[in-house]
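Morning F.,

Quick status update on the modeling queue. The single chain you submitted on Monday has been processed. Sequence for confirmation:
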Amino acid sequence: MGHSDAMTHDLSLLEDWAGALLLKLAPPGRRKVAKAITVALRRSQQQRIAAQHEPDGKPFVSRKRPKDLRGKRGRLKRDAMFTKLRTARYLKAKATAEEASVEWTGRTGRIAAVHQYGELDRASPLGPSVRYPRRTLLGFAPDNRAMVRDILISHLSP
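Structure tokens below.
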């Protein structure tokens, strides 16, 4: 079973388990629980991306070193990757009574997908095409299942 197959399997198991519990709630209650879950998942994803780790805990593939380092003598500052992509402005947490999602949309979604799946893209409009290494930006980490379970239980408890 591949990495994405395992994640899909985990999400299916979670959906089966949580779906039965959520059906006991009225639609406004389901929406409230879904919103709490998406906000918690977004926060978890933001922290993991800031730490530059894959969902399984491995570090992201490092960036290539720039070829011209003469511009900044005496120091080499390495900026963190995906600082803007992980902000709430771009990483959206959406919830309704029927579904919940954490996603990027539009141009931001395309940029994130290039990194998520390791696709071919151009760093600048006239630049050469480059194959970006796969960096799983959105993924279901092992502790996410427990977090979702805890949120569900807290909303279902009287």
